[in-house]
Amino acid sequence: MKTSDIDILLVPGLGNSGPDHWQSRWEDKLSTARRIEQADWDRPSLDDWSRRVVAAARQASRPVVFIAHSLGTLAVAHAAAELRDANVAGAFLVAPPAARVLLTLEEVDRAFAQVPRAPLPFPTVVVASRNDDFAHFHETAELAQAWGAALADAGEAGHVNAASGHGPWPEGLMRFAGFLKGLRPVPA
């Protein structure tokens, strides 16, 4: 698949992705990309976030590919059960946080920590860092396996955000392009 054939839905994490974050840069670069806006980026509600993910996917006019980061990856995972009949071609999930870490974040709805472990109903790649403060590599690898996702090892990349030096993140864009290349159209 090519980016011109899909609707790319960006799902940022806690606090949204600022202008230096790779998601914001990709949004500017990829003509079919748009951000799923949340009512409250700083005190996220799982029901609200996942409902907005579902609504955005259902409103898309072409096959959907999610690009999610951190808490946004869990919003996609929680929404997945309601997207089985939607036109979702795939998901590129970067740096999902571990449930044990989420439980320490007072501002995050505790429901996010009940991470679904069922296989996702669409092709998925999970990008994991070996020194992410929000999840150990083995935790993310186990989650990718439970989701039936391919695991992409990002090396020592921190939380794969602007703070860890991943502004434009060209390596990630190349991984995303490779992921798209392997996707097939969603059967009607």
Shape: globular
Radius of gyration: 15 Å
- Number of E-state strands: 6
- The structural class is alpha/beta
Indicate how many domains the architecture comprises.
1
CATH architectural category: 3-Layer(aba) Sandwich
Question: SSE order in H/E notation?
Answer: EHEHEHEHEHEH
Strand content: 15-25%
Task: Tell me, rounded to a whole number, the average pLDDT.
Answer: 96
- Per the CATH scheme, the topology name is Rossmann fold
The CATH top-level class label: Alpha Beta
Low-confidence stretches: none
Helical content (DSSP H or I, runs of 4+): 25-40%
First-to-last CA distance: 16 Å
What's the arrangement of strands in the largest beta sheet?
Answer: 2-1-3-4-5-6
Biggest β-sheet strands, sense, barrel:
6 strands, parallel
Q: In the CATH hierarchy, what is the superfamily?
A: Alpha/Beta hydrolase fold, catalytic domain
Helical segment count = 6
